[in-house]
Design goal:
The structure holds 2 protein chains of 2 kinds. Chain A has 2 domains: 110 residues, Urease, subunit C, domain 1; 308 residues, TIM Barrel. Helices cover 31% and strands 24% of the residues of chain A. Chain A contains 15 helices and 18 strands. In chain A, the strands form 3 sheets. In chain A, strands 1, 2, 3, 4, 5, 16, 17 and 18 form an 8-stranded mixed β-sheet that branches. In chain A, a hairpin with a 4-residue loop joins strand 1 and strand 2. In chain A, helix 8 packs parallel to helix 9 and helix 9 runs parallel beside helix 11. Chain A is globular. The model of chain A has no long low-confidence stretch (mean pLDDT 96). By secondary structure, chain B is an alpha/beta fold. Chain B folds into 2 domains: 166 residues, Aspartate/ornithine carbamoyltransferase (Rossmann fold, 3-Layer(aba) Sandwich); 138 residues, Rossmann fold (3-Layer(aba) Sandwich), CATH 3.40.50.1370. In chain B, helix 1 crosses helix 11. Chain B starts with 17 loop residues before the first helix and ends with a helix. The chains are: A alpha/beta, B alpha/beta. At the A-B interface, helix 7 of A face helix 4 of B.
């Protein structure tokens, strides 16, 4: 097996507070060494040795492979929207080396055979690491716990009835308790259904003007409060998916201060857009939770800075025109995000709202910790999952060129700066941007 | 004519300028006269095809659009789609594209989902008129309400400074939204009134005040517009009982005593007698409810005329068929 030398790039690894010019050597699919870049030493040696593959990374950024803990790959069941293949192709094109996929497939991933199917498909593709999330309750019915140990054995790394809250507080309590015994995180899709009640967008002056039924922010924060308290009661590990409101952030921030075992994620669309984007009834701006007010967006950005939000996760949710090219009320919730997430979020770095290290931390080591994965770091001996980014690469979001089958992006036409140009998984290059 | 009415669609009051509203109302005023003729038909839109595509039940509005089209000599076709079959049947987009393949000149659409006419307008080359979309807008209703008030007061300019009170379930009313936008654009001062459960968050951004006390609010009003109460809102917790609703927000002679002597009462219909409006008020001299219906016809004729008549032959045709008074009104402002 060849040694791989990434030479002369800026290595940014928030897991070890590393930021500087280093040469990274990869061998046997693992990170073999990271040494201060020295023009005279190893490179020339490397170039003369046939056992080396050298990649000139001068001017480029080298980070641990990006991790997205919230995607929907739609297979099995909804292959017309996405397959594990198209979804992982989109992932590596977006710089992601590890993705977690939600259980709302058909059949639902609430048993080991579905989990094993997903794991095998992902493994055979040899692109990104595909790690399934199993259901918390059988059939997402919210009444009976899944065989969580079997799901874990089959490859599930976390649990969620994503898309649906667990409305029965007693079941949520037992889920957190039981999962604690397996050291599995329960991911909460936090919303109080009675307050959502058929709402199609954020409740505020825009929904009033458009005559669309609103979803109040409190539909989210009420449920986040409940789940945080249940996590506190049980000691179970809680992760709050796609936080969208200031109110929920305040609850999570306080909980973290008290030492509650809770982590949280924010999506690129909630970080970048507000409910004003819906003004022309574009269904590419319809998702759940909905785009919120400007205050909420500002609070989300601040929450990445202060650590209330641990990770940026796309909630990549491909849909076809069948679900999206319809009346706003009837349109399916969700947007794709794997191929735009990095570029979109780097805008916040460009604007000086977040540092590069904060963004990379939220896309590497933090999601790994939240889900208990030995990933997200360039520590010597770990899997060589590496993303190489050209921070100066200017590009335009063109849905027609996406790898994902979904064209439902709210960022079509956005001019972005910064893009993954090479994605390495287990030491193998699985994606290279053709210039 | 100075500028032309350069618009493919009429989707909402929100995107209309004051000049456009004046033009529509002026034109509608001239079409009122047609209804008084022996032969209630002008040849203006001969050869034009208008499709009424209604996804919600409607008697008044659909009939009004249909008669308006026929009085303009257009061919009017009504399509009523039962809301229960929408899910199973073809998509709205497919329906619309199929209808357009028959080259109509205008599709009038009513739909339970807000934003649907906007969506159709993006797909279709023909004109689209919004006959009510979800909770969003009902522009022809607001135009006929403005016409009714300005006719009574003797001119569109009289709307400036007028005090309009809209009472009822504003949250679920497209009539309320279009009227708030329309009257406030014309310089009127709009107040909405109802229990807080029926006043949506941020409604004041549309250009109105909020008052939950009807007895107090009715005092200053020049126009009181009552909205229809949907009884099914009781189950959703929006009001405790019809009895209490009528007591607080129904317009009866007791509340009317506090109003100005020459107050104008409007209601988009159909009315719930004894609920939001008592029979003696609905049938009393203040009520212009039936006048609204008559003006609805004129407004819809004007909309067809302005959208479909075109600059080239439309105006000359209309000039032939309208009396000089009508032409003068067209040039107002």
């Amino acid at each position: 097996m060849k040694r791989l030398l990434l030479k002369g790039g800026r290595v940014l690894d928030p897991s070890r507070s590393v930021d500087g010019l280093y040469d990274v050597i990869v061998f046997g699919g693992k990170v073999a060494s990271i040494k201060a870049s020295d023009d005279q030493a190893s490179p020339s040696e490397a170039e003369t040795d046939a056992g080396w593959e050298g990649i000139d990374c001068a001017g480029l950024l080298i980070v641990p492979g990006l991790i997205d803990i919230h995607t929907h790959l739609r297979e099995p069941g909804f292959e017309y929207k996405e397959t594990i293949k198209t979804g992982t192709e989109a992932a590596v094109a977006g710089g992601f080396t590890t993705i977690l996929c939600m259980a709302n497939t058909e059949p639902i991933n609430d048993n080991g055979s579905v989990s094993r199917f997903i794991v095998r498909q992902g493994h055979d593709l040899k692109l990104a690491n595909v790690l399934p999330i199993g259901a918390v309750t059988t059939g997402f019915k919210g009444s009976q716990l899944t065989e969580m140990a079997e799901l874990q054995e089959a490859g599930c790394v976390a649990l969620s009835d994503d898309g649906l809250p667990i409305t029965d507080a007693a079941i949520m309590r037992r889920a957190l308790e039981y999962a604690k015994g397996l050291d599995l995180t329960v991911i909460s899709h936090a919303e109080e259904p009675a307050l959502v009640a058929g709402g199609a967008m954020h409740e505020g002056d825009v929904s009033t003007r458009l005559g669309l039924k609103g979803i109040p922010s409190e539909a989210e924060s009420v449920m986040v409060a409940r789940d945080v308290l249940l996590s506190e009661l049980t000691g179970g590990k809680l992760h709050v998916a796609h936080v969208s409101t200031k109110g929920a952030l305040d609850i999570i921030r306080e909980a973290k201060k008290r030492g509650v075992n809770v982590t949280a994620e924010a999506s690129p669309h909630h970080l970048m857009l507000t409910d004003h984007a819906v003004s022309d009834y574009g269904t590419e701006f319809k998702m759940n939770p909905p785009l919120r007010a400007g205050d909420d967006r500002a609070a989300l950005r601040a929450a990445i800075k202060d650590g209330t939000i641990d990770t940026i996760a796309t909630d990549h949710a491909p849909h076809s025109s069948i679900e999206k090219d319809v009346e706003f009320d009837s349109a399916a919730n969700g947007v794709v995000g794997l191929e735009t997430s990095l570029g979109v979020v780097l805008r916040l770095v460009d604007k000086g709202e977040l540092t590069l290290a904060e963004v990379i931390r939220a896309m590497t080591i933090n999601p790994a910790i939240a889900m208990g994965l030995e990933k997200g770091t360039l520590q010597v001996g770990r899997d060589a999952d590496i993303t190489i980014i050209d921070l100066n690469k200017e590009w335009t979001v063109e849905p027609e060129n996406f790898k994902t089958k979904g064209r439902n992006t709210p960022f079509a036409g956005w001019k972005l700066k910064g893009r993954a140009i090479r994605t390495i998984v287990g030491g193998r290059t699985v994606f290279e941007l053709i210039a | 004519m100075p500028d032309t009415f350069n618009r493919k669609d009429l989707l909402g009051i929100e995107d209309l300028s004051v000049e456009e509203i004046v033009k529509i109302l002026g034109s509608a005023a001239s079409f009122r006269e047609v209804a008084e003729r022996d032969i209630k038909k002008v040849p203006t839109l001969r050869g034009k095809t208008i499709i009424n595509l209604f996804y919600e039940p409607s008697t008044r509005t659909r009939t009004s659009f249909e008669i308006a089209a026929k009085r303009m000599s257009a061919d009017a076709i009504n399509i009523a789609v039962a809301s229960s079959s929408i899910k199973k049947g073809e998509t709205l987009k497919d329906t619309a594209l199929n209808l357009e393949a028959m080259s109509p000149d205008c599709i009038v659409v009513r739909h339970g989902s807000s934003g649907t006419p906007q969506m159709l307008a993006r797909y279709l080359k023909c004109s689209v008129i919004n006959a009510g979309d979800g909770l969003h807008e009902h522009p022809s209703q607001a135009l006929l309400d403005m016409l009714t008030v300005s006719n009574r007061l003797g001119g569109i300019e009289k709307l400036d400074g007028l005090r309009i009170l809209i009472v009822g379930d504003v949250a679920h009313s497209r009539v309320a939204r279009s009227n708030i936008l329309g009257f406030s654009k014309m310089g009127a001062h709009v107040t909405v009134c109802g229990p807080p459960t029926m006043i949506p968050v941020g409604i004041e951004h549309l250009g109105c005040d909020v008052n939950h006390d009807m007895t107090a609010a009715v005092k200053d009003a020049d126009v009181v517009m009552m909205l229809r109460l949907q009884l099914e809102r009781q189950a959703a917790g929006l009001f405790p009982s019809p009895r209490e609703y009528a007591k607080l927000y129904g317009l009866d002679s007791l509340k009317l005593k506090r109003a100005k002597k020459d107050v104008i009462i409007l209601h988009p219909g159909p009315i719930n007698r004894g609920l939001e409006i008592s029979p003696e008020v609905a049938d009393g001299p203040w009520s212009l409810i039936l006048e609204q219906v008559a003006n609805g016809l004129a407004v819809r004729m004007a909309l067809f005329y302005l959208l479909l008549g075109g600059v080239k032959d439309g105006i000359s045709n209309a000039n032939k068929s309208l009396n000089p008074d009508g032409v003068r009104l067209l040039n107002l402002r």
